[in-house]
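Title: Request for sanity check on Thioredoxin domain-containing protein prediction

Description:
We are preparing a figure and want to confirm that the structure record we downloaded matches what your pipeline produces today. Could someone re-run it with the sequence below and paste the raw structure tokens into this thread? We only need the token string, no images.
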Amino acid sequence: MVETLVVGGVVLAVLVVANLLLTLALVGRLRTLQEMVANQVVLRDPALPLKGDEVGRFEATTVEGEAFTDAALREGRTLVGFFAAGCRPCASVRKQLLESPPGMPLMAFIEGDPGDPDTVALGASLKHVARVALLSEGDSVTRAIKQAGYPTLVLVDKGVVAASGHYLHEVLS
């Protein structure tokens, strides 16, 4: 009987120490996160293209049937956006673009089924401020510009990435 109590006490002590160590680790992690927020460390999506990355080769066709290639991005500055129907952040960025066009050429790539009314409506709304093309799975555009989710905005200056982000304030300052 005494042996069972001793074994139970040892097991309980090990569990208490493990719980204490886990709690201390969590407190340390929270302090690190608090310091990052307090220092306003900007967390950047590592999947986004980096400033200075060169845009690769791609070919696309706009909804009007015009060819759009990487050669069009080698002159001047162009804002390239990747959008998807049903994406809430995309709707917010789209609204900002419609209310305040960027003042430079805008190329909008939309992911979705061409027969989907939401995709068609998104493309139709962006046509007021941009050239629009639909993306298909495995499209060369997403590899060439290194799209990272929706929305992805990339400011291209003479074929080189000048800024990238998921929101307009990240690429247009």
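Thanks, this matches our download. The chain is about 40% helix and 20% strand.
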